[in-house]
Amino acid sequence: MTIGRILIADDHPLIREGIQLSIRARHPGHVVDVAGSIAEAEALIQRNGAYKLLLLDYELPDANGFGGFFRLQHLLGRTPIAIISAHDSEQMVATTQAVGASGFLSKRQPLDATIAGIEIILGGGRVFPASAGPDTHIDMLRKRLDSLSGAQRRVLLALAGGDLNKQIAADLGVSEATIKAHLSAIFRKLGVTNRTQAILMMRPLLQPS
């Protein structure tokens, strides 16, 4: 009997399989799906629906910084998401907290520590390094991002990825006029006047150093 599903999105097979096997051993009633990209993770979520937890590698090839996180967060709603990364600077961890993740698990730590963190998150807790603290600037950017509609957020993420209006319109299945209308609303809500300013404003949130 399947109790729930957990999704691991990581393109490093050894890390992905090690976590997958450990979770299966501790939670035999759970299905543990794996993906090697944001696109694969999106397809699994759209096919399977609800997940109890997403473990997300920050550095997936199509992630575009935290852009991939926001794409999957939009699909998963309240499902907890934990970032897994070897890029564990204080700014990275603080940004992970600010964007609403449930935890940050460093790839530099032993597998046992990672699994222990996963258990805490599955139990409804949050897991971050003790030295991490909130970043007020990142928190302000997150609030501005939250003011955007789902469609506007997708347009902004595509913009940050370097896509042109025509490409964005084709990807979303809408007209270029609709994209222009979304951009006008995005600029107004962010308090900027053009796409360059919008990208520069959101860069600390999408791609922390």
UniProtKB/TrEMBL annotation:
Keyword DNA-binding appears in the UniProt entry: yes
Sites bearing 4-aspartylphosphate, chain numbering: D57
Molecular functions (GO terms): DNA binding
Residue span, Response regulatory domain: 5-122
Keywords: DNA-binding, Phosphoprotein
Family matches, as InterPro entries: CheY-like_superfamily, EvgA-like, NreC/VraR/RcsB-like_REC, Sig_transdc_resp-reg_C-effctor, Sig_transdc_resp-reg_receiver, Tscrpt_reg_LuxR_C, WH-like_DNA-bd_sf
Domain HTH luxR-type residue range list: 141-206
An annotated GO BP: phosphorelay signal transduction system
Protein name per its UniProtKB record: Response regulator transcription factor
Origin species: Rhizorhabdus wittichii
